[in-house]
Amino acid sequence: MDHFQYKNGVLHAEDVALADIVAQVGTPFYCYSTATLTRHYQLFTEALSPMPHLVCFAIKSLSNIAVLKVLADLGAGMDVVSAGEYARARAAGVPGDRIVFSGVGKTRDEMRMALTGGIRQFNVESEPEMRALSQVATALGKVAPITIRVNPDVDAKTHEKISTGKKGDKFGIPISRAREVYAEAATLPGLKIIGIDVHIGSQLTSLDPFEAAYLKIADLTQQLRADGHTIDRLDLGGGLGIPYARDNNAPPLPSDYGAMVKRTVGHLGCEIEIEPGRLISGNAGILVSQVIYVKNGDDRDFLIIDAAMNDLIRPAMYGSHHDIIPLNEPPAGADQQPFDIVGPICESGDTFAKSRNLPEMTEGALIAFRSAGAYGAVMSSEYNSRPLIPEVLVRGDHFAVIRARPTLDEMLARDTIPEWL
Ligand code: LLP
């Protein structure tokens, strides 16, 4: 469910007509709904409510500080993977003890930053990282709380670029070696073992791979406890998928996921953490764009729009589907025709959709890409020297620009010409 709906024939974000935002901000832009972010966060907290838990939003999916503040004010924790994300979480008012630090390549500087600023736990991904963290913590006179990310060798059955829990992936340590790695961790002076971490991939549309992984984690918890370790916390990662196309089978709901978590690991008495990104932010955002030209090709018609692959790279990168709808609701039963919807960038990959049925389109028509809140703005670039596009947050009947569109001068001002040129 989301809060981007037609009212009186025009698309609204909550109670704001998107055309009003277009009039003030221009196109293209990202628009997020506070109500959808809140609702999706709460679905997870409700789903996990029978167990002690913390929902840590995966900042990588949508990292605007205003969005983080919406979630932080609800009590959310944050999952960060870089100094920049850590700084964003803190700037949004998230206390250190609600921040978990994930990622395969944490630098010593990042470790220092988090240890000094406050951290709930590091999710350690390798033995060298574990040793480095112990050294950094010891030098600071601190003890780093850790889980170790294990790779459970489970096929997440998702896109190969976002599958992370299979043998051969770069993530975590093989579950078969977990006991020896925990044994070493226990000897390192700067570390305190508190639990186990697992994350098997993103956009999962079935609970089965999660269930297989969590059952292995339940076994491992008991083995590690028998070995004398304290395992009080299980970080079960993110990854629950969202419905990208309205007419497809919907992935499992957070409530089903919560019941499965309870079934698989609920008896262990651990505090449960999860790191959802997409399910909270994905359908809480849209990308609004305008048709520049309608170009009639030999065997197809193109909609050339003012958003491009630099603004939303998911279709080019993963072949992802995003529903595309006009801001003005077409009359029921209106004729549709197929368009290739493309951006202005000079490569064929700058194609959002092929043969997508839309009602009649003319120059200047406004369209919205649905489900663009997650991995949209955060993955954008200035390729073709196109400035990053604005982000807008809506709550009820008001909206605010939460990241302004840079002027060309601001974009150019970041480059410097050496005086010897
Ligand atoms: N935790 C860890 C350790 C992760 O690596 C990820 C995502 C998440 C949590 C959040 O996963 P989510 O709940 O959002 O599925 N750019 C790709 C997705 C990359 C996901 C990377 N890791 C896309 O646009 O589909």
UniProtKB/TrEMBL annotation:
Give the modified residues of type N6-(pyridoxal phosphate)lysine: 60
Q: Which GO terms describe its molecular function?
A: diaminopimelate decarboxylase activity; pyridoxal phosphate binding
Binding-site positions, substrate: 278, 314, 318, 347, 375
In terms of CDD domains, this protein maps to: PLPDE_III_DapDC
Q: Which InterPro entries match?
A: Ala_racemase/Decarboxylase_C (IPR009006), DAP_deCOOHase_LysA (IPR002986), De-COase2_C (IPR022643), De-COase2_N (IPR022644), De-COase2_pyr-phos_BS (IPR022653), Orn/DAP/Arg_de-COase (IPR000183), PLP-binding_barrel (IPR029066)
Q: Give the record's keywords alphabetically.
A: Amino-acid biosynthesis, Decarboxylase, Lyase, Lysine biosynthesis, Pyridoxal phosphate
* Orn/DAP/Arg decarboxylase 2 N-terminal domain boundaries: 36-281
Q: What family does the database annotate?
A: Belongs to the Orn/Lys/Arg decarboxylase class-II family. LysA subfamily.
Assembly and partners? Homodimer.
Q: What is this protein called?
A: Diaminopimelate decarboxylase
Q: What organism is recorded for this protein? A: Pseudorhodobacter antarcticus
- The gene for this chain is lysA
